[in-house]
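Two proteins were folded this term; both appear here.
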Amino acid sequence: MAPAASSRLDCAQDQPPPADSVVSSPPSAVSRDEMTGDVDATEGEHDSSGRNSDVAAPMVRSKLSCNFSNHQSNTCTMEGDVRIHGKPATVYVVKASTYLPENSTIKLRPYARKWEDQVMQLVREVTMRSIPPAAGADGDDVTPPECSVRHDVPAVVFSTGGYNRNFFHVMTDVIIPLYLTARVYNGRVQLLATDYEPKWIAKYKFVLAALSAYPVIDMDSEDTVRCFPSAHVGLESHKELGIIPGLSRNGYTMVTFREFIRAAYSLQRPRVAPVSRSSGRKPRLVLILRRNSRQLKNEAEAIAAGTEVGFEVVAAGPDDVSDLERFAGVANSCDVLMGVHGAGLANMLFLPDNGTVVQIIPWGELKWPCRHSFGDPVAPMGLRYLEYEATAEETTLNETYPRDHAVFTDPLAIHRQGFDKVWNIFINGQHVILDIKRFRGFMEQLYQAITTE
């Protein structure tokens, strides 16, 4: 499969991306990738609760800077007199001493998937207004609202919108970027969410509580003007389900992220210990079972094959996986996580170090995009990766297309017809029927690889 911006998205999504994905350009109000403006600002006295309504303060200097050059996300950081007004989704940076009219208004959507226009339209836009020192300067007559509440901790503004029901995307587009952006404050940071969804906040409450000592603020519903000494709008992001250590200013890696996740969910097993075949103990394997596209149609036989080889197989359907608090512990108790390509494989994050991830790749020349989503991220997490690639005999496409069709004779010809074709046929249009004899041989090799004499 030829590398393309759109083809990279398929393998983790259970909903189609746009036919052609284009990297978003910076808003027209910004004249360059890096924009910086100094501001003179006020900063009040604060109490130990992290907020204070007293707005009187000494004068300080601060900066507003925005980065639109990152492929994953647009971000702005600011410090000084920063006022966030929730309902209009507007951030005011007050008394900018180097105010420039062309950079007085900046807009961005605080979600780390900016090249995908279709999903970005589901994310609320946040406006940043840089206010000049004198009212009416350069024709700007914006009067910033007065502070209702003053906080003594930084703010981080992000979105719980986008692909918020897909675990891979939640981790890639929100949780890992939140970790990169907010972890440095060791809990002394206030999170504000646009596109606020209470169910999402509840589902990921342990991660959010590990990042911030304060409840997440619903930015959409309140008319309060909250003032902060500094703020980030948008999240730092590096790659799909990963961190590039050289880009992390705080030395974060996927190993440190997984340590953070284990602590957040109180997971007790940091590392897989090799199982001796003579001990009588069985290595534990969790098999992720899908119920929409890419089902494992003969799952009972697959489970039996794994059991006969010597594994303790734990079957995990969508209801099991969706109970995140419980399933994190299940995955952490296992030595191997296996499943047909899809978002459920992102639960590898909960495996102990030295665990093994097995991806079953469906028919259709999908090895490259599937490895991109769930193969390449494995080693940086301290895990091992194996894959089982389905043959033309192991797909339900045999029920739809004759064997002389390009689907079987030249799958790359389908790829050349565009991503929609690939999505509809190979990603969303088939299930897997394992050749149990072949699969059993694979499982025997896997068992030998992860056990000792």
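Next, the second protein.
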Amino acid sequence: MLNYFEKNLYKELTFAITSFTLAFGIVLKHENDVRVPIKLGLFIMVLGFVFFISMTKLLHKILLCSSYGLKWVKNFRLSISDCLDISNKLISALQAVLSCIFGFLICAHSCRRNFLTTSHIFSEAYAFFASAYFLYDIWSMFIVYVTKYYDNLKLKTINWTENMDLYNMIPAVENGELKIVESFSIQNQEIPSFLEYIKKNKLMIFHHMFIGGYGLIVISSWRGGLGDCIFSFMYIMEMSTPFVSFRAVLSILKMKESKLYVINGFLMILSFLCFRIVMLPLLMYKYSLVVSLSMYDAIIKLPSMCQLSILALFLPQIYWFILMIKIALKMIRPAKPKVEINHNHHHAD
């Protein structure tokens, strides 16, 4: 007989596997070069929401409800928000892995045929599926934001019984001892509103809405089925994201001094350089060869919306890469020894 926790665990896992299988099982029934109808695309987006929400809940339950997860939480002295933040980062890494897989599949199909006109159904299908992630992730990060609000509050402890709804329970570490505490509703504190969260994180919200909204419209509609090979590389740009996410997880686990953190940081910078900085200019160069123009002329003759999209995509990458290099240099450079000044010392005239 399965216990309460195992039943809920398998339920979330079943939802995740079923939604993903159904989404791309339907897509595989179509020819490779078929466009995704809007109704099918919206259905795939709904399945994307089911998938990413189920996977998030699955990780929450493993961390917050399983005996192994709770032992892990205690050993690393994690706060509530730490646990949910780790889940959030792991889902981000999962989406990035899926994005790269579909990017490589699309690239292998389209780039070998016609750089500009060949189309693959996965290009639009995954755009709908991934847009669900970027929109849902806004809410997921809001939950992390709310839990951080409660990190320093003393929560009311209760006795853990088998009849409790484990998903509504959250762990807390107090004096080195793990407690099971009631959900946020027991607090007399006012929960920060979603609107307040949006106001404090405008740039992040814009980023997610831009990719999940504008990016979806461009890939599924405005491009008219053209540039499939180019968009496959946009998916592959996510190659650096798992290392970015893992770096955040290691930081939460207080492992910044470990060799693993250093190795991951090196791989993060290398993958970011290759797939987010170098790849886009090389892609533009390849495009210029296809249209038999210089790279400058090829870019200048692109529609203005394409030029703005390239800038909106590329400039933030330059900004983040510079920040990564600055952080890396701070870690490499030894701290300058402080020079002690003896105020009683007098120089001879």
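The first strand starts at residue 170 and ends at 174. Residues 277 and 295 are 16 Å apart (CA to CA). These notes refer to the second protein only.
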